[in-house]
Amino acid sequence: MRRKRRRSAARILRSILLILISAIIVTVLVLLTSVFFPEILPELEENKDPHEGQVLINDGFNDVWITPYEDVEVNELTEEDFDKTDGELSYTGEDFDTLYGIDVSEHQRYVDWQQVADSGKEFVFVRAGYRGSTQGGLYKDPWFITNVDGARKAGLEVGVYFWSQAVNVREAIEEARYVLELIDGYDITLPVMYDWEKIESMPESRTIETDPSIVGECGVAFCETIKNAGYDAGIYFNRQLGYYGLDLSRLKDFVFWVADPGDYPKFYYAGSVWQYSDKGSVPGIDGDVDLNMMFIKRPEPTPEPDASPAP
Q1: Closest-CA residue to 87 (of 255, 241, 228, 280)
Q2: Could you identify which of 40, 45, 161, 186 might form a hypothetical disulfide with 193, taking C-beta atoms 3.0 to 4.6 angstroms apart as the criterion?
Q3: Alpha-carbon span 199 to 189, nearest angstrom
Q4: Under 8 Å CB-to-CB from 238, ≥6 apart: which residues?
Q5: Which residues pair with 296 in a beta bridge?
Q6: Are strands 96-104 and 289-297 parallel, antiparallel or unpaired?
C-alpha cells in the first residue's frame, strides 16, 4: 500500500515538474524572441484579424464594421429573392409568404380604399397620432378613423403607428397609453408600431439632442406597454437608427419594421415588415405613398412517410 502511495506521489511530482519546465521554456523563448528578433512580434500582432467576430455592413451612408448581436435573427434575404418588372417589385423566393401594403397618414388625405384593395394591396399601417416636435403635445391624426374604417371595409389588414418625439421613457409610456385610447373599439389586426424620428432639419426640434441610448429605452417602454395591453407591438426604424440608436437584443421579441429603400433589404438583421419605397404610386391615392412588404415564414415541409413495405 505504501509503495503504491509513493508511486502516485512520484507521478504527481513528475507532472508538476513537466508543467513548470514547459512554462519556463515558453517564457524563455518569448524573452529571447523579444531580445534577438524584436521585429517578429509586431508582425505577429499585425497578422491578427482586427475585425475578428465582426461583420461589414452598410449603414445607409458608409461601409462599417459592427459586432453583431448573437441573439437577433439575421436577414437571409438577398437580391436574388426579388424581381422588378415594369417598375413593380415582388418577392420570388421560397422561404416566405409575402403580403404587399402601404402606410398612410393625414398627408395622403382622402384615400379610395376600394381602389387600393383592387390594386392588390393587402394591408396598411395607419398613423394613429403623433407628438409635436417642438412643444411636445399629443395629437390624433385627423384622418385616423376615416382611414381605419375605410381600409377594414375594403378588406385590408390594419395596423397602426405612432410618430414619436419622446425624450424620455415617461413620455414613451404616455404615448403608448394615448395610442391605446385611440384604438380602443377598432378592429386592429396588425401590430401597433413605434416610429421615433429625429428632425435633423429643425434646430428647434425637441429631439435634436436626444441621446441614442434614450431612444432605445423609449422603444422598449412603448412596446412593452402595448404588449401588456394585449396587442402585438413593433418598432419602425431605418438603418442608421437600427445600428446606432437601438439595442435590438432588447427588442427582438417585437416586430421589426425596417425602412430600407431599394430593390432588396440590405439591413443586416431580419425584419418582418420592409418599407422598400417612399415614392410609390397606388391607385386611389393622390401623390406619393410608402410601399411595404410583410414576410411570413413558411413552415418547414413535412417529410414524406416512408412508403417501403413493412417487413
Answers
A1: 280
A2: 161
A3: 30
A4: 60, 258, 259, 260
A5: 97
A6: antiparallel
Number of domains in the chain: 2
pLDDT, one tens digit per residue, over 28-47 is 665 655 555 565 556 545 66
Please name which of 109, 184, 189 lies closest in space to residue 155, comparing C-alpha atoms: 189
Is the full-model pTM beyond 0.90?
no
C-alpha cell at 144: 385616423
Q: What is the CATH number of the domain that holds 271?
A: 3.20.20.80
Tell me the residue type at 20: L
Same domain for 104 and 15, yes or no, is no
Domain, as residue range, for 22: 2-46
Which of 112, 108, 81 shows the shortest CA–CA distance to 94? 81
Q: What was the pLDDT predicted at 73?
A: 97
- Residue at 254 is within a domain: yes
DSSP 8-state class, residue 126: E
Q: What is the model's pLDDT at position 199?
A: 83
Alpha-carbon distance of 9 to 1, in angstroms, equals 12
Residue type, position 304, single letter: E
